[in-house]
Amino acid sequence: MIKTAVIGYGLSAKTFHLPFIVQQPELELVAISSSQPELTSDYPQVQHYQNGDELIRLSDAELVVITSPNDSHYPLAKQALLAGKHVLVEKPFVLTEAQGQELFELADQQQRQLFVYHNRRFDGNFLTLQQLLESGELGVIRYFESHFDRFRPVPRPRWREQQGAGTGILYDLGPHLIDQAIALFGAPEALTTRCRALRQGSETVDYFHLMLHYADKEVVLHSSPFCALPTTRFILQGDLGSYHKTGLDPQEDALRAGQKPFGENWGLEPEALYGVVAKADGQRTYPTLAGNYQLFYQHLVAALQQGKASPVSSIQALQGIRLIELAQQSQQLGRTVEF
After folding, report:
1. Architecture of the domain whose range is 121-293+322-338
2. What is the pLDDT of residues 26-45, one digit of tens each?
3. Between the N and C ends of the chain, which has fewer C-beta atoms within 10 Å?
């Protein structure tokens, strides 16, 4: 058993980590840090700490999962690695590529493993997209568009939407879309971006439109807070046909509603939401595979216990942070920047 502790007890910990940690047989949840009073009643069987610093110093955890605000990821991960613990960091990994490089080098020095949490690699629609690409059915891919839109026209009073390091939608939803693009196509040659605060009273970026330029294709990553209709999720276009998918993976809504992440129907979406493949001879629905965020933790355990590959490589994790930095630079300069 790998003794596991979680820093933070907000949406990320409650929704995307704890339900899967307690379901993973090789992991033993031993500690959580938070000042929230409900922690005691929700998880009475584990050690409780007021903050991450205290948890790292006093708990006997072997793996520390960091879900605290974005600007705390780097110092907490560094402290945990120096304490001889394996570390899993929620996205965004860190705020700069330099911070990330330092942490991976430190992990090597400490002979510990450092993981970056990109659960959206295990969305059902993304697994379906990968299956379609591997089939070659659409031929040579020339254009890919990926959206994570919402209808949230009024800013909310929470740290993610307030001024500060690592706040705003580029650091919140951007890592999902960027990581998926990197997983599919690798790093681009250059990028052109628009990152803006469009909502009245918005204190930070709430809209982005990233254009990633490859030698043989174009990729667009987009997020808007003004999308009231069912959102486009993926558009994939090749020289033999195209694929269009709307709607987000159902796992987050199920987890927020308190459902447990297991059972034969977990991660399945209704047939009415299946995507469409269109070719010269007509079009057809393309069934969506079941999503399963538990797979991330299964891969993590395999990396720790069997020496298997990390679910997200260090190179890809660093490329993702670099793209966020370059997106901001492109916006500031008002031009295309090279990767």
Report:
1. 2-Layer Sandwich (3.30)
2. 999 999 999 998 998 999 99
3. N
